[in-house]
Amino acid sequence: MSTHPAQPGTIFSPDLAARFDRLVTLYPVKRSALVPMLLYAQDEIGYVSDAVVAEAAARLGITELDVRNVVSYYSLLRTKPAGKYHVQVCTNISCMLRGGNEILEHCKKKLGIPNKGVTPDGVFSLEEVECIGACSWAPAAQVNYAFHENLTPESMDQVLADYRAKAQNGSQKGGGK
Amino acid sequence: MATLATHPDCVPLVSYRFGKGATNIDKYIELQGYESARKALELGPDAIIAEMKTSNLRGRGGAGFPTGLKWSFVPRQAPKPKYVLVNGDESEPGTCKDRLIFEYDPHAVIEGVIIAALAIQAKMGFIYLRGEYRYLIEIMEKAVADAYAKGFLGKKIFGSDFDLDVVVQTGAGAYEVGEESALMESLEGKRGIPRIRPPFPAVVGLYGGPTIINNAETIATVPHIFRIGAGEYAKLGTERNGGTRLFCLSGHLERPGVYELPMGYNLKKMIYEVGGGIPNGKKLKAVVPGGSSTPVLLPEEIDIGMDFDQVGKAGSMLGSGGVVVLDETACMVEFALRTMKFYQHESCGWCIPCREGTDWLKKSLTRLHAGGGADKDIDNIRYLAENMLGRTFCPLGDAAAMPTIAFVKKFRKEFEDHLEGRGCPYHRTAEPEPALV
Lengths: 177, 437
Ligand SMILES: Cc1cc2nc3c(=O)[nH]c(=O)nc-3n(C[C@H](O)[C@H](O)[C@H](O)COP(=O)(O)O)c2cc1C
Ligand code: SF4
Ligand code: FES
What we know:
The complex is a heterodimer.
Chain A: H1 14-23, H2 34-45, H3 50-60, H4 64-71, E1 85-90, H5 93-97, H6 100-111, E2 124-129, E3 141-143, E4 146-148, H7 153-172
Parallel strand pairs in A: 1-2
Antiparallel strand pairs in A: 1-3, 3-4
Helix pairs in contact in A: 2-3, 3-4
Chain B: H1 25-30, H2 35-43, H3 45-55, H4 67-72, E1 83-88, H5 98-104, H6 106-120, E2 124-129, H7 134-149, E3 165-170, H8 180-187, E4 211-215, H9 216-228, H10 230-236, E5 244-251, E6 257-262, H11 267-274, E7 284-288, H12 308-313, E8 322-327, H13 332-346, H14 352-369, H15 375-388, H16 396-410, H17 412-416
Parallel strand pairs in B: 1-2, 1-4, 2-3, 5-8
Antiparallel strand pairs in B: 5-6, 7-8
């Protein structure tokens, strides 16, 4: 996803590499930087690739196995690419009571993919998630990190259409957010 | 939009600066910001802790432990550095309040950390936010940078001899990491597997040093206690339950939202007046009073004050402040199943009663809900849940078992109605799950 050329010795953009250089100095123990490092790396690369694992291990002086053990624990970290827009629909209790399951089903139909699927063009992926902290504004979803709340099937359509348009504009201009 | 909701009975104390532009540090200062930290600096550790005890503030993370008492457990002299750790993992279903604090008053969290650090003489604090709250990481990091720039953090804060560093940390998706010992593991760059206790974090915590861990709302409340005075704060609530609380009303309500109300506020009033009652003329069926792990209450059980003691007496818990309201159209078996699916998904797998128990309960509830259950399944569900209670390595097992027992006990008839191929009388379609083997 990065449009920056990588610096020698790192797979990350100069900004992110600099951020990581600083991150490891903040803690009494370097390894504390691991979880944030993996998440920020995923944000840039799209997923926790083998190269991300290798560089994180090297930066923190731990083994790749140590890193993989941590990756497998946290639900936001993924080892395969997701869509450009990762649609995460909450179906936990507060959302369920207000139509969260219906929103999820609607997304499956609209996008033509099952839970955890990716659209063939790579624009969308879909995931049923646990409570995202939007219970009082249920039903809710997150697309990447943006919250979308008080959803109805109609407003969800609009949300998806907006991202679809963004993806098209983005590819015409050759990338970007 | 995630904003604070209001009602004439609301008491804006923790939310006093919400919507007033207080993410800007100068605005925050204009609104009495960082005055409490300066006061605390003059008071010193003993007087700070005494004030905290007077305030009757109890932890807003779920267990309701008295905050002043917790702080007093930290040894004065310790061979290792001490830490303050703010728990912003906020993942208990039904709970969405810490999010508003980080968004609208990030400096209150920082100021709370300063006061806590002064109380135990810690030189470092961490503010841990769940990974999903990415936009809040940015807000918090900016607030921390601004506080450094003003000399409120870093070397010799406020021109004193006291040094304090604060780091904002992100998680990456895990409910269990909200459990305090798993939180420390995560912050140390590991899987969120809980630690055995004792020793308690106040003695051996983060990096082996004495650590106080508090919920984000607890910490953000601290500066307000020093702003209005501990006695005044205590008086806002009930006996042994000081102050106010951000209650998250959700589910079948006319006006769901996060409302700041005094501790001890009547639950029935909260539902019918503050939350506007049940929409479409439907009848109330059940209330989960404090997040998904708290036992469900029946309509005849809700004429109670919402403080830790009164809800405890009613057989449930005040928990995390998430009030989930169900009307007569809700299927309790489906609700119990969705709750269990969550705990099964979030179980860290470390201990057998929780790992296996949540899995079996989920399977049994799935079968029952789909109409494939047998008579004995209902008793088995209760038996299994009762045998998990108190036998798991950390409280997540209890959090899964307690609500389950209450669902079966209080809605047994509804479970029976699903039996013998009758399926869900509420005509819900459940996703087909693999059959029990
Ligand atoms: C499974 C589990 C999840 C928890 N999640 C959270 C959480 O997300 N936020 C929180 O503040 N406390 C959470 N807690 C409670 C913490 O362990 C701890 O008691 C709390 O952060 C202490 O802060 P307080 O005294 O201010 O309430 C959780 C506990 C358990 C057992
Ligand atoms: S109770 Fe559950 S979450 Fe806690 S240690 Fe055991 S398996 Fe892990
Ligand atoms: S239950 Fe869906 S956001 Fe909390």
